[in-house]
Write a structure and sequence with these properties.
By secondary structure, the protein is α/β, with parallel strands linked by helices. The protein is built from 25 helices and 27 strands. The chain folds into three domains: 257 residues, 3-Layer(aba) Sandwich (Rossmann fold), CATH 3.40.50; 136 residues, Rossmann fold, CATH 3.40.50.920; 328 residues, Rossmann fold, CATH 3.40.50. The chain has an eight-stranded mixed β-sheet with strand order 19-18-20-21-25-24-26-27, with helices on both faces. A seven-stranded mixed β-sheet has the order 3-2-4-5-7-6-12, sandwiched between helices. Strand 24, helix 21 and strand 25 form a beta-alpha-beta unit. Helix 15 packs across helix 21 and helix 17 packs parallel to helix 19.
Length: 769
Amino acid sequence: MAIDIRKETGRAGTVEQRIVYESGNEMAAYAAHQINYHIMGYFPISPSTEVAQFLDLMKANGQHDIVLIPADGEHGSAGVCYGASTAGGRVFNATSANGYLYMLEQMPVQSGTRFPMVMNLVCRSVSGPLDIHGDHSDLYFALNTGWPIVLCRDPQAVYDMNIIALKLAEDPEVRLPVLVASDGYFTSHQKRRVMTFADREDVLKFVGERPPEGFVHVLDRENPITVGPYMNEPDYINNCYQQSMAMYRAEAVFDRIRNEYAELTGRDYPVLDLYRMEDAEVAVFLLNSSAEIIKDVVDQLRAQGVKAGSISPNMIRPFPAKAIAEALQNVKAVTVGDRADSYGGHGGNMVMEIKAALQTYGNHNTMVISRIYGLGGKDFYAEDGLKLFEYAIDAVEKGHVEKPFDYHGHTPGDAAKAPKRVLEPMKYEDLKTGLITVTPDEETGKLNVRVPPLRSLTKKPKRIAPGHGACPGCGIFSGLELFFKGIEGDIVALFHTGCAMVVTTGYPYSAHKATYIHNLFQNGAATLSGVVEMFQERKRRGELDHLGLKDDFTFVMITGDGGMDIGMGPAIGAALRNHRMIILEYDNEGYMNTGAQLSYSTPMGHRTSTSNVGKAQGGKVFHHKDTAQIMAATNIPYVFTGSEANPQDLLRKAAKAQWYAQNVGMVYGKILITCPLNWLSDDKDGSTIIEQAVNSCFFPLYEVEKGVTTITYNPEEKGKRVPVSEWLQMMGKTKHLSKPEYAETLREFEDEIERRWSRLKAKHENPYL
């Protein structure tokens, strides 16, 4: 709709605009779809995940042509984006926190070879411990990567800066990838009124065509190039110098572009956002969303006769040092709030750069106070802003800064309130029942397992206590507990990031009765490898004798929610080293803990939040990964699949897994579990859905013992095989596959299931396959 921009903003614009009411993530996606990038490589991580979700939904409805490439992890997504940018097109990405750190080594490669792109960093706390809420600890890692960085304090700025950023990145004077940073959950998920270009054509006209000068690419057969050569001195320092000059030019280029944008839209983003700074004597410096809240505090203090003002940059790379020094030249004291610490540096990164700016430009009078605030998503209120001003006012009154560096909003520790143990350690006698026995068969080399009736195992204590926060009907814990019933004695468990981890360990509580470890999403197998080897070595040296261990621990890693995508490399590494441990994958067919995005375990045609169903798309477009077969190819001693719908079978495999893990080497197991929330199924149907997944041969039950494959349950021989379509009809996420327009997808999916099943039967019949 056409509107009067002057009434809305106080400044006239020249293009038709419309008002939407959306979040920061929605506006990042909206800007990207209007630009119609060529490629987006992505990997889900909260709170940036929604950007890819919204783009996928728009793609399903035919609203853009962006090729969305789901990577195996953030490092992979950065590689996808880099490769795409070398091929000459426009590239987009979004990430957060540890995901950004995982791709960090790729960032200087992109900027050092001068290939433009735009990436949204939806700022979030960097682990550890794990916290998914917003601060700037990831943003500060970006400062030395060679990417210009623009900031967004609200969803309107997210939209505008995403359009400005591409024009900045592709300017011949800059030619660098650009980072667009906004605050996770504060800006990313909170809806605000936003004004947008009404027509995509106006966006594309503003952004313009990619300039031909200097923009070489790898697809020009008339001009073959070498990208990323090995470079010695003095060439390397010269390359860095050219990149540095491009970075500093970015400030003036940004200033030119933002003026062009202001003429079009009526919205202006000067390098520094100064609020009532003309005669300010005390000031507060903040980034992003908090900078809007502090303006209300400025007004309150002005009403009381205090000459207060606030400063917030719209760009921090290049750092506007001269502009900040000039803005502070008459200010007696400024409090700099950093939403991340530079541990050991006596302040956060922004305070260090402001101090350097004042020193460089001859301002030796302004007193600087450093405060770390708002970590881990801690809210910032007007009362906090007033306190930041009080630090500055106090310094002016006393003539000196009493405490140059401190945290604001933290709670001092109190030994009397230290967490107390709630769950007592499980007794060894209860865990070592002797009801399950495993004995090697000397003739066949395989294991014979005796498992009692299930009811006799009910007295074994549960490894995970009641009280976790899983969704109703979640199959993770019933599946894990059934597996653990087959394990005798003590365990040490490591959980990958995922639903099972998140819902059981909300500090200061834990639902884990046994020792539990968590490390980064991709690195669980390597971490547990270290634990296993340290146990063996300390045991060999006699350092654990005083603990009175009756048996060795069984070391178990639990993974799921896509953990065997991002964690596949370390898992294969652990398998090839053959550490004595178990990796157990619960397969819920997606990244359920971050909002049901597709993973490589999501089957073809299945609906997720990044494989939507619409007129232009019918669910996931490629087949699911067979992790059990991949791990079997590493020649570890034992691989199995299991299901709680076949409990005796799973118990036998758990007992075998423990024996192999304690006596031979690594074990890999995979169990299919239900996720009613994201499978769009009824809670009560979970067991039936899993049973039919087995009976349709989608999830066959088998084991690979010392390289020999044995099908442990054959629904054809039992007369229980059901059509794949019958199983798919039980879940809302796959009901669309019964429609005529998706008949080809269904046929291809059924053919692949039959192919894998036939191949498995052939392996069952021939020990050499």
